[in-house]
DNA sequence: CAAGTGATAAACAAAA
DNA sequence: TTTTTGTTTATCACTT
């Protein structure tokens, strides 16, 4: 699998959703969010500065990468001439861009302190104490993938985990042992020598073995899918990596034209409105596309979610219909 | 029930 | 010498 030719801009992962929508808290205290107001590639030309500013300022932590995605550099990445930098099938940007993975973050990171302080014993405990649903392999994978060079020393892996999963701020030190144990034992990770000339600090750098990357990504995707499904129906939409049914080929972002008129021309409405969400199918650029968006959303493609076109997504949509 | 997987603990050696 | 990093072994819990 050729995954290294398309790389994400550094720090394309963001621990927080851009959404200011109401949060949904799962039974284990993790939070998932309804669809973000602007979640997936807003057209560089369709996203007004006012909207971008609005979204940016609404982010609880406006320094996060997702917010950066609305700024010049990242938006530019979505332009046709730069599309190849964004079309990595295995990109993890969906994990953050729409709050699809890390929206499962504990509230502690998403809720203003004042709100946390007002919580009463009758409410669920502060979710910072709840353990993330991801395996250590997944955590390590995410950390490494989020690094500019796709490699990190152990210390930075610890740091990434702590920064993104507050549970580990207060967890006992054993998890670090587990991280090292996992790095050592798992075939998915490879130890590489640091550049001695630039080496500061102990140890080696760790990277993801390319041959195991799809597997790790799949595990991560399934984990997220499972937890978001269990925690909140409306998080059923799969990450907006555009996949063809065989999971192998990327449907380039270019194939989706974010022009409202064109989509509306060819789309048919799917009866999901009972769930509060609407599924829209349309055929475009020789691809069968479908979207899910809140029922009260105007058909403005700046606000829609692009879903995977694979069978899994279809199945998810089917289960939505069953409700 | 057995096998596989992941988490955790612990011991130990090597390196910084 | 201390701390960190990396490896290995063992055990337990859970899932398939």
TrEMBL record:
<keyword id="KW-0804">Transcription</keyword>
<feature type="region of interest" description="Disordered">
    <location>
        <begin position="113"/>
        <end position="132"/>
    </location>
</feature>
<feature type="region of interest" description="Disordered">
    <location>
        <begin position="1"/>
        <end position="34"/>
    </location>
</feature>
<dbReference type="InterPro" id="IPR030456">
    <property type="entry name" value="TF_fork_head_CS_2"/>
</dbReference>
<dbReference type="GO" id="GO:0003700">
    <property type="term" value="F:DNA-binding transcription factor activity"/>
</dbReference>
<feature type="compositionally biased region" description="Low complexity">
    <location>
        <begin position="1"/>
        <end position="22"/>
    </location>
</feature>
<dbReference type="InterPro" id="IPR036388">
    <property type="entry name" value="WH-like_DNA-bd_sf"/>
</dbReference>
<dbReference type="InterPro" id="IPR036390">
    <property type="entry name" value="WH_DNA-bd_sf"/>
</dbReference>
<feature type="DNA-binding region" description="Fork-head">
    <location>
        <begin position="131"/>
        <end position="218"/>
    </location>
</feature>
<keyword id="KW-0805">Transcription regulation</keyword>
<dbReference type="InterPro" id="IPR001766">
    <property type="entry name" value="Fork_head_dom"/>
</dbReference>
<dbReference type="GO" id="GO:0000987">
    <property type="term" value="F:cis-regulatory region sequence-specific DNA binding"/>
</dbReference>
<keyword id="KW-0539">Nucleus</keyword>
<dbReference type="Pfam" id="PF00250">
    <property type="entry name" value="Forkhead"/>
</dbReference>
<protein>
    <submittedName>
        <fullName>Si:ch211-145o7.3</fullName>
    </submittedName>
</protein>
<feature type="domain" description="Fork-head">
    <location>
        <begin position="131"/>
        <end position="218"/>
    </location>
</feature>
<dbReference type="GO" id="GO:0005634">
    <property type="term" value="C:nucleus"/>
</dbReference>
<dbReference type="InterPro" id="IPR018122">
    <property type="entry name" value="TF_fork_head_CS_1"/>
</dbReference>
<keyword id="KW-0238">DNA-binding</keyword>
<dbReference type="InterPro" id="IPR047119">
    <property type="entry name" value="FOXN2/3-like"/>
</dbReference>
